[in-house]
C-alpha cells in the first residue's frame, strides 16, 4: 500500500483539532536525511542546495504520505554559522570537525549569527521558501533549530563544555546567551517565511546531564527561545530531546510547548499521564532496533503498541519514531508504519487495535 490517504495532512490536522472524524492519526516517521534515498541523491548533494533540500522532502511526502515536512540537515548548522568547522562526508550526515573556539577568553569574540548571511542558514531559508511553493497549504512545514544549550556545546566542543558546568559555569552561561540570540534570529526568519520552528536539544537529555544541570543551564535559554517564538507569532513549539527525559517533562510543559517528541527509551504512557493534558505527545518507535534493523512485522507491532498507549492523550498524539531514522532505514519499514496507522483509522477503536496487536503477536 502506498499513499492512499483520503485527506491531506492539513485537512486531517484541522479535523482532529475541531473534534471531527479523520481518515487516520497523524504520523511522521522522521525520515531525516534518509530523504536522500527517496529523492535519489547523495546527502552531500543537498547540504548546500536549497532546491534539493526542499525537493527531497516533497519526494518523501509524495512517496509515504507523512504528516510533517521539516527543513533540517544536521545539528551543526548554527554553530557553523558562528565559526565552527563542519565536515561534509560524500554520502553521510554532516559532523562537527572543529568548535568555533577553544579558549574561554575567546567567548567575547563570538557574535550571534545572521540567518540571512552566515554559513548555510541562508540556504535553509531559501529551501523553506521553495518548499512552500511546492506544497502550498497541503501540509504543515517546519524548520528545525538546535537548542541554545546544545549549540553552546558545539561552539566550545562537547567534552570541554561539559567541564565548564563545574569549572566555569559563568562561561557556559555566556555561551548559552550568545547561542540563544542566534536561535532567536533564526526563529524570526523562519516565522517570517511562514514555517513553524521545532527545537532539537539532545544535550539537554537526562541521559547526558542531570535535571539539576538542565534547569540551571538549559531551561532558562530554552524558555527564552520558546517565549520569543510564542510572542512573535503565537506559534506553539514542538521540542525533541533524545534519551531519557521523564524527570524534566514537567519543566518542559511549564515552558508552554505545544508538543514533546520523546525517544524510545522513554514511556509514551507515562508521558501521557504526566503531561498529556498540557502538550501533544509524539513518538516513539525505536529508530534503530525496530525501524532500521527490525522486520516490517516488528514495526507494525511497535506502532500498534504506541497507539494503544497514547491515542487518547488529551492534547493529541502523533505516531512517530523516537528520533531521526538512520539513513538506510528500509522503505518497507517506513511504509509499514504509515500503512498501520491507515489501517487503524480515526477515531481510534482501542479494542480493534488490541485485536490487531494480538494477531501480530501470534
UniProtKB/TrEMBL annotation:
Domain (Uroporphyrinogen decarboxylase (URO-D)): residue spans on this chain: 8-343
Protein name per Swiss-Prot or TrEMBL: Uroporphyrinogen decarboxylase family protein
UniProt xrefs under SUPFAM superfamilies: UROD/MetE-like (SSF51726)
PANTHER family hit by this protein: METHYLCOBAMIDE:COM METHYLTRANSFERASE MTBA
InterPro entries: Methanogen_methyltrans, UROD/MetE-like_sf, Uroporphyrinogen_deCOase
